[in-house]
Design a protein that fits this description.
Layout lengths: L7 E4 L7 H12 L3 E4 L14 H8 L2 E5 L8 E2 L3 E4 L3 E2 L10 H4 L6 E4 L2 H15 L4 E4 L7 H7 L1 H10 L4 E7 L16 E7 L2 H7 L6 H13 L3 E9 L5 H15 L9 E6 L4 H10 L13 E3 L7 E3 L2 H18 L4 E5 L1
Parallel strand pairs: 1-2, 1-3, 3-7, 5-8, 8-9, 9-10, 10-11, 11-12, 12-15
Antiparallel strand pairs: 4-5, 6-7, 13-14
């Protein structure tokens, strides 16, 4: 698939006080993209569309260039201590995505240009925890790789962490546009993870993302560039024939990574879950989705901020975990499964 190109760009005036803001304005002008001014992303109005569904789809191709004003980083357990905020929103259309409710009525993409301030805050967190390592997750609220060919914010972050003494960086992506990241001076401090899934899940629930084969080709590239490599199998979804579907996934991974240095390879396993608000939004935005969200078939689990989620019942979740862990052991015996949640 082609790299993401916004159809409409909003720029906050203060963003032009920063080199990246000015660079992006000039870049989008040369690309002939419509640019509008907004005092704040909260003031973004008049996204084109005759109805809410059209406006949602158009918002997914709208980019807001602005500042990250809140410099207190969120936690990012279990994958990292902190989420480093480089962008918010995603150009993909994954039906199950938790960002459906996180972003609510503002599904447009935002990129932050005050990188030096963000890096200074990250350094404070590292200093506070030293000599312990501090892990930063760069893809909590976006698929940062899908945007970075335009901004290079992630590349700058990789090199910032690469020069640190007590920092580590992690991020995950469903996109294969990684060529500009291959020469980044990461110094072994970045783990590059790809989100993978069964054919059924990718075909039915992940429109607007790179194909499985494109992701695997990119994984070979980043492993060749010396990055630590990982895969997130998420969401693990109990579709008809899921056992065979997920075994085939690991078979294809094994074939694709032949000849690649997979020392230190990691897997993270996340079962499918949803909240009631997410279900309502998903059904509105993807009315023909095949995604199963029957509360009667799930177990209710309390979540952060008092918002509960529906996960698979205990026995089914145990079956999922044991099955996928066994596939990882069989096809990648030297790998580490970091967690199942």
């Amino acid at each position: 698939m082609e790299p993401f190109t916004p159809q409409l760009v909003y720029i906050e005036p203060q963003a032009l006080d920063y080199p990246l803001g000015r660079e992006l304005k000039e870049k989008f002008e040369k690309m002939g993209i419509e640019i509008r001014e907004t005092t704040s992303h909260n003031q973004v109005r008049n996204i084109p569309g005759d109805n809410e569904l059209q406006q949602y789809r158009n918002a997914k191709s709208t980019l807001v260039v602005g500042l990250r004003r809140t410099l207190k980083f969120d936690t990012s357990k279990p994958s990292a201590e902190y989420a480093i905020p480089l962008a918010t929103g995603c150009m993909g259309h994954c039906h199950y995505c938790y960002l459906q409710t996180t972003l609510g009525s503002k599904p447009y993409i935002r990129t932050y240009v005050n990188l030096d301030e963000i890096f200074a805050q990250a350094q404070k967190y590292m200093d506070e925890r030293a000599p312990e390592m501090t892990r930063f997750e760069a893809a909590c609220t976006s698929d940062i790789v899908g945007l970075d060919h335009l901004t290079h914010s992630l590349k700058k972050t990789i090199e910032f962490i690469g020069e640190s003494e007590f920092g580590l960086l992690r991020f995950v992506t469903k996109y294969h546009h990684v060529d500009h990241l291959l020469d980044a001076k990461h110094n072994g401090r970045t783990r590059f993870r790809f989100s993978v899934n069964s054919r059924y899940v990718i075909k039915n629930f992940e429109p607007g993302t790179s194909t499985f084969d494109e992701r695997l080709e990119a994984a070979r590239k980043v492993a060749g560039a010396g990055y630590a490599l990982g895969f997130i199998v998420a969401p693990i979804y109990m579709h008809e024939g899921w056992e065979e579907g997920y075994e085939e996934l690991f078979q294809r991974l094994g074939e694709a990574l032949k000849g690649v240095n997979t020392n230190g390879l990691t897997f993270e396993l996340i079962q499918h879950r949803f909240t009631k608000p997410a279900k309502n939004v998903i059904m509105k935005r993807y009315p023909k989705t095949k995604l199963e969200m029957d509360e009667e078939k799930r177990k209710y689990k309390w979540g952060r901020y008092g918002i509960g989620k529906y996960v698979y019942p205990t026995d089914e979740a145990k079956n999922l975990e044991e099955t996928i862990r066994e596939y990882a052991r069989t096809y990648f015996p030297e790998s580490e499964v970091q967690y199942f949640t």
